[in-house]
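Message: Study each token:
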Amino acid sequence: MNEGSKNTWRVFSAIDLPEPVRALVGQHISALRRAVPEGRASWSRPEGIHLTLKFLGHIPIADVGKFSSAVGRAVESMPPFRLGIGGTGTFPPHGSTRVLWIGVHDSSGRLAELHERLEAESAAAGFERETRSFHPHLTLARLRQHDRRMERGDNTQQARFLTAAHKEALFPTVEITVSELFVIRSELGSAGSKYTVISRHRLDGPDNL
């Protein structure tokens, strides 16, 4: 779909993070950037980090309401639940790192259930199912292994340093309560992405927390 079309929006559905968790993520990112200042990476801004459940990319503006309705059906009768945010890892787990992430721990299985509901309702509304397995995480950075501003060997070494610093860092698990699912528009720009909440959908099942 045309990236620059005035008739499309870049849309996804996600769980928002409490400010204290964003602050911890921001501190972790700052520590990595201080530890490896030459590391080449595209860093996420803490205020823009979400736990994404379904990313559609650019869709016709006329279809945004249809997606919001599907998200609303997905959360019907589902109670709020808890998640753990913590631990560090990379994609891929071995070899040249492309992504640094913070883990998400779904001990109750409620997040996996919500994700499956969302996929089912979205498919029923005409949106394609995600074919990849669901591995919930918070993306902190995408590493630039082949940055032209550095010699290939130096850049690869800095990427290894950055990966090691990330994996060795302590990010103790903190617990959050999930009570809403958002539909969000993302607008790409030179200063970073701008996020606009399109709709909010409360998990309104019996609260058994």
Observations:
- The chain is about 30% helix and 35% strand.
